[in-house]
Amino acid sequence: MAATTPAAGSNFLDPAALMAIRNLELRARTVVEGFWHGLHRSPYHGFSVEFTEYRPYSPGDDPRYLDWKLLGRTDRYYIKKYEDETNLRCHLLVDQSRSMSYGSRGYSKTDYARTLAATLAWFLAQQGDATGLLTFDETVREYLPARHRPGHLRHLMLALDKPAAGATTDLAAPLRRIAELVQKRSLMVLISDLLAPPETLETPLSLLTAARHEVVVFQVLDPAELSFDFATAARFQDLETGRDLFLEPTLARAEYQRKLGEHLTAVKAICEKLGIAHVQLSTAQPLETALFDFLKVRADRGKLVRRRAAA
Amino acid sequence: MSFLAPLFLLGGAAIIGPILFHLIRRTTREVTPFSTLMFLQPTPPRVTKRSRIENLWLLLLRCLALALLALAFARPFFVQPASSQPPAEGVGKRSVILIDTSASMRRETLWADALGKVEAAVRKAAPADEVAILAFDRTARSVVSFEEWGALKLDERSAAVHERLKALAPTWAATHLDAALLQAADLLDQAAKDGPHPREILLVSDLQEGSRIEALQGYEWPRGLEVELLPVRATKLANAAVQWLAEGEETGPVDDEAPPRLRVTSSAESKREQFQLRWGDASLDVYVPAGQSRIIKPPKAPTDRTQPLSLSGDEVDFDNRLFVLPPQPLALPILFAGPDADDDPRGSLYYLRRAFPKTRRQRVEITAHRSDEAIPAFQLQQAQLLVLSDSAPAAAVASARGFAEAGRIVVLPLTSAAGGATLARLFDQPALATPEATLKEYALLAQIDFQHPLFAAFADPRFSDFTKIHFWKHRRLDAAALPGTRVLARFDSGDPALTQTPLGKGTVLTFASSWRPVDSQLALSSKFVPLLGAILEQSSNAPAQKAQYIVGDEIALPVADAGFTIRQPDGSDVKAAGKFATTDLAGIYAATTGALRFVVNLAPEESRLTPLTPDRFTALGVPLRKAATLSPKADPKREAQAQAAEVESRQKLWRWLLAAALLVLLLETLIAGRLSRSTAVPHQATP
Question: Which CATH architecture has domain A15-42+85-302?
Answer without folding.
Answer: 3-Layer(aba) Sandwich (3.40)
